Amino acid sequence: MKLFPILLIFLALNSCAPNNVKTDDSLQKFFDENHVTGCFGIYNNAQDQFTIYNLSRFKDSTYLPASTFKIINSLIGLQTGIITNEKMVIPWDGITRPIADWNKDLTMEEAFKVSAVPYYQEVARRIGKDTMQHWLDSIGYARRYDTPRITNNIDTFWLDNSFKVTPDEEMGIVKNLYFDKLPFQKRVQDIVKKVMLQEENANYKLSYKTGMGYTNGKYIGWITGWIEENQHPYFFVLNTEGTSSKEVADTRKTILMGILKQLGFLEGRK
Length: 270
Hints:
The chain is of the alpha+beta class. It has one domain (6-262): Beta-lactamase, CATH 3.40.710. 37% of the residues lie in helices and 21% in strands. The chain has ten helices and nine strands. Strand 2 (37-44) and strand 3 (49-53) form a beta hairpin. The two termini are 33 Å apart.
């Protein structure tokens, strides 16, 4: 099965301004207020409608996926049996790291929630380069660009700028995951969807994975996922860029929630 980025297909078929893509420059204020640049896209599946801020960056610019790759790493780990289920523990290696939540034995679910890089580096080592590449090829992840293959270490390639994706590709992954359209067992996709759930209340369910990396003197931040209101999913990708790691890390959720609120989410009215 090939997975193609959903927006790119519409753009190719409908030139550069298809009817189902709305650009919204009013969203720039959320980036400016938080001293970062970037882009945002959200897809209304029921109405087949995109709302995008900074369209060229969203569909054409490539960035290291950073910890959003934990979505893919989890899927491949579970599919191959490297990860048995979300409760599988990988023991702490005894190396003390700056993030305290990483310095202990972790289950997959715990590692996903605290974005524990060492846990997922060990998963990647156990998967191996050839198997990892096979599954990346199967889902078409990063195949359209200049870095389609794992060229660096198996346990760092998603962090070291040797492997890059567009925000549009990230959206394609989570949309297909939500609808069980990736070439993995349904059980596997259900487990990953379960660990992606971050907030649930009477008005909405919010599922996502964050990521942050460093490239060319700038920090890149991500939030990739979906929001469900009244049983309807809306898929989103936020990509930010700034000069301070703390600023990028601290503002991702603020920007996301501000944008969602402006677009009419979070109050159960969608």
